[in-house]
Design goal:
Layout lengths: L2 H12 L3 H60 L4 H6 L9 E5 L6 E5 L2
Antiparallel strand pairs: 1-2
Length: 114
């Protein structure tokens, strides 16, 4: 091969197509956008799980506080009978279930009510 033929092959193989630059730039932008979207959605799901557990804890705290307030109200009113309960729209439970502590602390067993 002559020097001219080698030179032509070398130049033609290294020349980029004009659209190749746009495709490469678009691919880099797309990959960057996908990485950012992945980080956003991963952090959003973790944040959502943390907030859900916090909300569940707040709900349990509110339920406990409400039960304590109801207990205090009934103990302070001293006038609790069937008529007072009917006036508050309370109904008799069909099946009572109580929790009682066994000998070991932290072990709870459920028993049917009276």
């Amino acid at each position: 091969m002559s020097a001219l033929t080698q030179s032509v092959l070398y130049v033609s193989l290294t020349r980029e197509h004009p659209a190749e630059i746009l495709v490469r730039r678009g691919g880099i932008i797309l990959c960057g956008a996908l990485i950012i979207a992945y980080i956003y959605f991963a952090s959003a799901s973790v944040f959502h799980a943390i907030m859900q557990r916090t909300a569940e804890g707040n709900i349990e705290t509110a339920r406990t506080e409400l039960a304590t307030l109801e207990k205090n109200y009934f103990s302070l009113s001293k006038h609790v009978d069937q008529n007072a309960a009917a006036g508050l729209n309370l109904v008799k439970a069909s099946q009572k279930s109580f929790a009682e502590r066994s000998v070991h602390v932290g072990v709870v067993s459920a028993t049917n009510g009276l």
